[in-house]
Every structure is written in C-alpha cells, then in structure tokens.
User: Fold these one by one.
Assistant:
Number 1:
Amino acid sequence: MAVKITDICIACGSCIDECPVSAIVDDANNPDGQDSYYVYANKCVECVGHNDQPACASACPTDGCIVWSEVASGQPSRDNIGSDMRNGDTPVFA
C-alpha cells in the first residue's frame, strides 16, 4: 500500500473526506476487522495526478498518523519516496 494509517489515529474522518479515490474506510468497514481506519492498497495512488501531496495526510490533524508504506504493484507512487522510507514508520508529514 502507498500510505498507511497508524494506531494514533483519532478517527476524525478528515482523511476519508479528502481521499480522491475513496481508498480509505473507517473502522466499521475495515476488512481486517480491526478497530482502526484502513487504506486499500489496490486503490491508493498517493494522490499522484490528483494533488501535490497525499490529501489524507495534509487533512489529518494528528501529526505522524499517516506513514509511507510499500507501493502496491501497478499503482502510481511518489517516486522520490524510497524503500528506506517506506517502512511504515516514516510520517508523510513530520
């Protein structure tokens, strides 16, 4: 997946409202059954072609909640974000 929402999410819904491709679902619709928001890897395009940066992260009021994760095969990605930063720990916005 291109971005991932961590467990510090406050479930405000801002990311869901801003996602241009409807890749984010709330905890009630999380396919893993977890009590957390979820980003579908096969839908997330890191806002390439939609925004200058991932809209979910820029809308998020919680610092470090949305992190870079591995790119789904065939999906657009921000090419300057290397695999060293796509470990699920590097915030999209610090």
Note: Strands lie at 3-5, 24-25, 38-39, 66-68.
Number 2:
Amino acid sequence: MGKKAVVYWSLTGNTEQMANAVFEGAKEAGADVVLLKFSDTSVDDVLGFDAVALGCPAMGNEVLEEGDVEPFFTEMEGKIDGKKIALFGSYDWGDGEWMREWEKRVSAGGATLLSGEGLIVNNEPDEFALGECKKLGQALASA
C-alpha cells in the first residue's frame, strides 16, 4: 500500500476538519498515513510519499493561500509527474475557481488526480461532507 500523507493549511479550522477526516478515512482503510501542515514539511519529503492529499481553502480572489501553500505547490508542481494526488479545501464565496485551477495545475504536471476532481466544502463541513472526506481518504489509501 505504501506510505501516504495528508498535507494541509487552514485558517478557520474548516480545512483542518476536512484534513482530519481524510486522514481518518485513509487510516481506517489500512493506510500507513501521516497528517502534516504545509509549514511543517518540505516538498522533497512530500514527494517521497506514494500518494498525497493536499488541502487548502480558497483565499483572496479564489486563490491558494499565498504565504505557505502557493510557494510550496509552485516548487512541487514541476516534480509531480506520475504522482497520485488528491485535493480538498473549503470556501466561503465564489464557485470553486481556486480548486479548478489547482486541478489543472496538478494534471498539467503529469500527476493523477485521485477521484477525478478536488473535494470542496462550503464553510464548515457537516456530517455528509466529513463522510465525503473519509471517502477521499479511502481513495488515498488504495492509490
């Protein structure tokens, strides 16, 4: 099954709740998985995992968080060919443009986007959304 990682950034705690549920889903499915914040790891470490779930909420004008996540992913995206990546995050406005752009960047880098698209949740995840996060964790586990 290989080692998996769930890496996230959260401001309000919504994306953190999602990350915890993705992690739980992967762990329940038997994965050897770790939960990390972007600020607590490096691109090289993340690229060492067999599959990774990346989480970031929509920020500003529907963009990735610009202090930690955008620079991290910019460094990472040229090195992801052949990698298996899941995306998730929360938003409070807009229609998910930040996630669609992130999906395009993952695909353009040659990675496989698990579940075919990123998982987005409006504001705080409810029980249904947390269940979807666990399903994403299960997909991560089997990747």
Note: The two ends are 8 Å apart (CA to CA).
